[in-house]
Specification:
The protein is mainly alpha-helical and 172 residues long. The chain is 51% helix and 0% strand. The chain has helices at residues 23-39, 45-60, 63-89, 97-117, 135-140. The longest helix is centred in the middle third of the chain and has 27 residues, at 63-89.
């Protein structure tokens, strides 16, 4: 099956895949292509074209650019692994670390919005009811998830079992 819109790109370089590159870069491109073809020995023409393009892109990169690209890909893979671990541990919803970060970001944005409107920002002092008895209880009433901030509260929470495919299964 041929795509008519791509006909002008067929046979663009009849001398070879990398003939428009300098000799050293051409050698690196062929090395990358041979590495890719070891992974995909029987590939269709569309995949081969993609592999040629990727080999050319990687050959044209300097060592510093290639190293930076590799580090960013490694960090991306690590981020996915951390998210998968959080899911298996049951740290989803309000227990996810990103949840607290998004709440802080939303609060900062709200303060900036109020300041931009010209109104006075809310003071950082809460008016506690008289005779509340315990100051900590009065303050914790104003925090959305107070058990995360009370000393020893995290150790009293139920433990979660770590099994693949069973996120958040309680041990109680």
């Amino acid at each position: 099956m041929k795509i008519e819109g791509l006909s002008k790109y067929r046979g663009r370089n009849p001398q070879g895949y990398f003939q428009d590159l300098p000799w050293g870069v051409r050698q690196r491109a062929y090395a990358w292509l041979s590495r890719f073809l070891k992974r995909h020995p029987y590939c269709p023409r569309w995949r081969f074209a993609i592999l040629v393009g990727q080999a050319k892109r990687l050959a044209l990169m300097s060592d510093d650019e290639l190293s930076a690209w590799g580090r960013s890909m490694h960090a991306k893979r690590g981020g996915y692994a951390v998210q998968r671990r959080y899911w298996h541990e049951g740290r989803i919803g309000p227990d996810h670390p990103a949840h607290a970060a998004s709440q802080a970001s939303a609060a900062t944005a709200e303060i900036a919005k109020v300041r931009a409107a010209g109104a006075a920002a809310k003071p950082g002092v809460w008016h506690l009811p008289i005779g509340s008895g315990n100051l900590q209880v009065g303050i914790m009433r104003h925090i959305e998830n107070p058990e995360r901030y009370v000393k020893g509260a995290l150790s009293s929470q139920p433990k979660f079992e770590h099994k693949a495919g069973c996120p958040g299964k309680r041990l109680d």
